[in-house]
Amino acid sequence: MKKWIKWASVILLAVIIFVYGFSFTVREGSYAIISRFGSVRKTCTNAGLYLKLPAPFEKVIVFDAKSQYMDSGYTETLTNDKKNIILQTYVIWHVSDPLQFYRSVGDINNAATYLNDLTSNVKNGVMGSYELSALVSTDLDNIRIDEITKEMKERIAEKALSDYGIAVEDVRIKRIALPEDNLQSVLDQMIADREKQVTKLLSEGRRDAAQITAEADAKAAQIVADGKKEAAKINAETEKKIAAIYGEAYDANAQLFVYLKKLIALENAVSADTVIIMNAEDSAFDILESDH
Question: The whole model's pTM is what?
Answer without folding.
Answer: 0.55
